[in-house]
């Protein structure tokens, strides 16, 4: 590594030949070096937690029943609006520290618990503050169309997202991507298209929460609009998988959510790989449907529940996550010229990462060639 970039990677003799001068040389002692995780889908900026709902689900209530009883996204919206900036930032920093300690070096963070122009802008400004003050590289996404807020008529809310929020998000450069929760009972494909077309006209990249609970046309819309990614895809049929692959969309799979909610439908990852659709694996970290930002856990779940091979799951959680964030030629690979974001794990082989699950193997984490977590590594000749 030199000046924050990878110079060479591979067998030691090849690396020594490629590197001239006197590099800063540290010996990882035979440990495994992997790219830092690229977590391409999180809702990290939230206030409060919803362990009461978790207990209700353990007692047999469904996510939909809990939402109907006043829980769900609306309870997080209420708490977000009444919580001061500093409290929200302190929580978010702690969650980011935990992710970094588990090897995450790039994370997408969405707004979406504000659901008004002022509160959505506040959320994205807080994300910007985090991005400027935390070692995890943060990619901001505007998700004003996460839910229709209580007491607002749906057409009026869609209009507010398109006519008030998006122009200000773009003018203040607060987000790289725009996302919409396209689902039965949330936003229809037509409403989603309206929001995403407006976002595209303002220069934002497009993402979509698609087919999480049912095949409602979200993935076909992502294909038609040429979105960067379509996320969840638990209920996506084969013809829509083919449409996504043909359109060059990345499928972002969130196995932590199907695990946490015990959803019967699992994303058809083997069909996706077979059809040539690049799949990423991300956490979906949020207080309702996946209260974990552990990427090693997501990699294990991707192998166990989605039948990805260990190698496929590792690529999905690094290089393909980067592609889902428009950073496929910057992070997620240890390749000359790429940003030197990597983790050193106390394991001899990559296949052990998903296999030995539920504990951390991370010894050290580096961002742009500088160590940002773990015990200091001694310099060596
Ligand atoms: Zn999500």
Question: Care to give the gist of this entry?
Answer:
This protein is α/β, with parallel strands linked by helices and about 375 residues long. The chain contains 16 helices and twelve strands. The longest helix has 18 residues, at about 155-170.
Describe it for me?
The protein has 381 residues and is α/β, with parallel strands linked by helices. It has 16 helices and twelve strands. It has an eight-stranded parallel sheet. Strands 1-10-11-12 form a four-stranded antiparallel sheet, with no helix packed on it. The mean pLDDT is 95. The structure holds zinc ion. The site of zinc ion (ZN) has 4 residues, from loops.
Amount of helix: 40-55%
Q: Categorize the overall geometry.
A: globular
Low-pLDDT runs: none
> Compounds present?
zinc ion
Give the C-alpha Rg: 20 Å
SSE map:
Elements: H1 12-18, E1 32-35, E2 37-39, H2 51-58, H3 63-68, H4 73-82, H5 85-101, E3 104-110, H6 117-133, E4 137-145, H7 154-171, E5 177-182, H8 189-201, E6 205-210, H9 218-225, E7 229-232, H10 238-247, E8 250-253, H11 255-260, H12 269-274, E9 279-281, H13 295-306, H14 310-316, H15 319-323, E10 342-345, H16 352-355, E11 362-367, E12 370-374
Parallel strand pairs: 2-3, 3-4, 4-5, 5-6, 6-7, 7-8, 8-9
Antiparallel strand pairs: 1-10, 10-11, 11-12
The structure holds zinc ion (ZN).
